[in-house]
Amino acid sequence: METINAHAAFLCNYEVMQILQQLKDNTQKKHKREASLATVTYETVHYLQDTECKNQSEEMIQKFLEGMKKFKLTKMEKLMMVNTPPRTELEIQLIVQESEERLSEEEVRAIIDLVNEIFPTPAT
Description:
Layout lengths: L12 H17 L5 H14 L9 H11 L6 H9 L5 H7 L3 H4 L2 H14 L6
């Protein structure tokens, strides 16, 4: 029977990238027997470096989550917004179940403004 880890939680992409980068650094120092783990770690870090999390920091994420407390959203919805910050009303509709019933137009606009303030669009 499985035991439940009370400290287990969902991680955002930024946290996953940080953990895997540390693991990658540690793995490179160890034996080659962990080659498959090193490959998965490398591929995942490589993928995550092309996502929004490469421009994020712990402070930004904390500030965003603090600002999101006033909205009645689930932890998973907030996590999805950290991983893929919504910049349009449509993106919020795709993330938040029944968003039209749960969020007013002002709240949707406030979320978008908060996203743009804390997670500015990187210059291309």
